[in-house]
Automatic annotation (TrEMBL):
The keyword Transcription applies. GO terms for biological process: negative regulation of DNA-templated transcription. The keyword Repeat does not apply. Residues 14-75 form the HTH iclR-type domain. Gene3D superfamilies: 3.30.450.40, Winged helix-like DNA-binding domain superfamily/Winged helix DNA-binding domain. Pfam families: HTH_IclR, IclR_C. It comes from Mycolicibacterium murale. GO terms for molecular function: DNA binding; DNA-binding transcription factor activity. PROSITE patterns: HTH_ICLR, ICLR_ED. This is IclR family transcriptional regulator. Residues 76-254 form the IclR-ED domain. SMART domains: HTH_ICLR. Keywords: DNA-binding, Transcription, Transcription regulation.
């Protein structure tokens, strides 16, 4: 009898945890602030249940209540996020190089890592905060539709490439959504050391991406630039990004140099 009660209690706690995580999962870059009714709708939970969960999450610090009676992610979640290896190691190693790239190019410079089939942006430097909100920290883009995404995808297994296209969307007429079209581009990235997109996610925006490689040749992340520039102008910035990416990789592991020996002599108008 006691063991059955303990099992029921554990199951209830597990269900409560899952519901609490579902509430937190409602927030994203497009919805950083949500009201109670919106949270109930997104989680498909009764408003009363959602209210109890939200109260507990506010008490713990996972959520914070605004003056408008809406909710945002709380400081405690941010504090925990800073303990992630992405923030403690990769971001710390990358920041000096990102600043150098920004100083040299005066372009929107960002750092991204792969999160399943998405590029998760973890840092951005820009003098125009509203220019490229799609690459603000915490936002995600499909790997196949952005420069940093393709730079990382080129160093993934074939199954990841296929999965990234399973629910692909043509954001513009330029978006590459077939394996037959994407595969040659990824081979080009491995040969030349950079990815380029032009109007694939939004009209008029071009991007470059260069992978940050481990000694074993896997992509730890990528750094990139987004700008409204012609391809002939943008690719002149490739060497700047490649030097920075290699420097970040070496900061993380001095042996990373060996992963870059296969890159070609330099950028060309492909």
């Amino acid at each position: 009898m006691e063991s059955a009660k303990r099992a029921d209690s554990a199951a209830g706690e597990g269900s409560m945890l899952q519901r609490g995580l579902a509430v937190l999962d409602c927030f994203d870059a497009n919805s950083p602030e949500l009201g109670l009714s919106a949270l109930a709708r997104r989680t498909q939970l009764p408003v009363s249940t959602t209210a109890r969960l939200v109260t507990q999450l506010v008490r713990w610090g996972a959520l914070a209540r605004t003056d408008a009676r809406t909710y945002v992610i709380g400081q405690r979640v941010w504090d925990l996020g800073l303990l992630s290896p992405v923030n403690r190691e990769l971001r710390a190693a990358a920041l000096p190089y990102l600043r150098d790239v920004y100083t040299t190019t005066r372009s929107n410079v960002h750092l991204a890592v792969r999160d399943d089939t998405s590029a998760l942006f973890v840092e951005r430097l820009s003098d125009a905060p509203n220019a490229t909100l799609i690459s603000s920290p915490g936002s995600r883009l499909p790997l196949y539709a952005c420069g940093v995404g393709k730079a990382m995808l080129a160093y993934c297994e074939g199954t990841v490439v296929e999965q990234s296209l399973q629910e692909s969307t043509s954001f513009t007429s330029q978006t590459v959504v077939t394996l037959e079209s994407l595969q040659p581009q990824l081979l080009d990235v491995r040969a030349h050391g950079y990815a380029h997109t032009e109007g694939e996610y939004s009209h008029g925006a071009s991007s470059l991406g260069v992978p940050i490689l481990s000694p074993g040749g896997t992509a730890l992340g990528a750094i990139g630039i987004v700008a409204k520039a012609k391809k002939s102008e943008l690719i002149q910035l490739v060497p700047v990004l490649q030097v920075a990416a290699r420097g970040i990789a070496r900061s993380l592991d001095i042996r990373a140099d060996q992963a870059y020996v296969s890159w070609g002599a330099g950028p060309t108008e492909r």
